[in-house]
RNA sequence: GGCUGAGUGGCAGAGUGGCUAUGCAGCGGACUGCAAAUCCGUGUACCUCGGUUCGACUCCGGGCUCAGCCUCCA
């Protein structure tokens, strides 16, 4: 029985899907104005594993995973201006880069990847519903109950056009917060449940914002009026764009229904983003929004949160120049998803050594299907059932590996059966799916390797250039084998050292010598 | 200040009211021309002070330390 830690109740609870034939999960994805960093990698990988495991439990066809893309917001506008690009030129570019990183990390594609700009209709409808039900008000209209219907006929207009074309359009006449629409937090009774805050405490600590028409510092913006030169969509409240929180409410309910099973994201989204999503969605639909809230912990550097604002982040791209993507994936999954994850080269090196051990067990063993290997699977599943305890699941993988190594000399069949199981269980985590030789020889999945090679920095290319080609390595190994036959140990060791200097480690097996890239 | 979460062996990282996590590193042995890989053996870890208990690293309370949220952030 799968149990999940539900952040709404702060407890581990049995997971009971609303509809086992269609388990539904929404995860807050990226705001696409820059390359993804390791924090994004963690969300990507963690929820990929959740997705994989749900598919395993409920069947591949019975899980719907939605991960959105935020493709309009202040930072995107700012970045596009900096780069002199149109908004969708910028966002399309970084969506491509994000997909490339996700693919490299072995992340399955979600069933849907909705983009905010493609869901303006739903967003506007939801804001209207909130206004109609008295949960939202328009700035500048003192009477929050006031009829806003005078402009409701607007949204049909021409909002579907590519926004980039409109940046310099005639939108400039609207200024300031007059067209802003805010959510009235005081109207939502359960505000603060998810983040464990109460509105009184929040008000005490609230910062006073200047230049805002909020009636309460806790209120947040649903619709932001466009300033001159900003991109906009037509709405009943004038030209503008959606606030950040409303897009997720709209896309989630649009793709998965008003009430669905799991909502995930980084811990930093718990407040205010997810709290606001609940307030919006439940007020608008009158139904419970989400049963289970899951948040993954932060990636840290030197015991400090990795974040854009602190500037202490590594992009996925940078890390993949030094480490195999599967090593990065292993590193992420080797600690529990709710724990902090400290990044350092040393830890990545250890992850590499550990993954090497696993692939070593697979090397030279032919997987054989069948056999009694239930004990390992049972323990693996028990670990995963316990709130996706991947470190414990990985421990089972190592025990399997040791057993394979014990048996490989005496009972190849039995070893093969265990190897098949190791590969199968590894697959639940998106690990160990490559030919071991490819892993040892530093071959990345072809497409990605070619792609990275063409994009990586000169230092990286220089390193690669200094290494020996596989053909040259094979030739040297042959020469060494010849020397060993003649018991010319000096020559044999010289060749081994020469290869070692290039990061190639030799292993003399009973039949032949194999090698791996260090 | 308010609210979370965390403190485990050299390092990383699970877990449990009494019984081996696991990995990396180290040490001893086997194997090897020597290595590497692998196997076998090996480490009386659980922040601190009280309490509950036959028994607590594990439950409760105080303290100390760290991280996070309360502002954009995965």
Provide the descriptors you would attach to this structure in a database record.
RNA-binding, four-stranded parallel sheet, 18 helices, alpha/beta, four-stranded antiparallel sheet
Principal-axis shape equals elongated
| Structural classification | alpha/beta
Fraction of helical residues? 40-55%
Unreliable stretches, pLDDT < 50, 5 or more residues? 142-176, 456-466
End-to-end Cα distance: 41 Å
Major β-sheet profile = 4 strands, parallel
How many helices? The count is: 18
Mean pLDDT comes to 89
Sheet-strand content, in percent, reads 5-15%
Rg, alpha carbons: 27 Å
Q: List the strand order in the largest sheet.
A: 4-3-9-10
User: Based on DSSP secondary structure assignment, what is the total number of beta strands?
Assistant: 15
Q: What does it look like?
A:
The protein contains 18 helices and 15 strands. The chain has helices at residues 38-58, 74-83, 87-104, 120-132, 199-205, 244-256, 270-285, 316-322, 325-333, 345-362, 374-385, 390-407, 412-428, 436-440, 446-455, 458-466, 470-485, 489-501, and strands at 3-6, 11-14, 23-27, 63-67, 136-138, 181-183, 220-225, 240-242, 260-266, 290-296, 299-301, 304-305, 341-343, 504-508, 513-517. The strands form 5 sheets. Strands 4-3-9-10 form a 4-stranded parallel sheet, sandwiched between helices. The chain binds one RNA strand of 74 nucleotides through helix 1, helix 5, helix 7, strand 12 and helix 10.
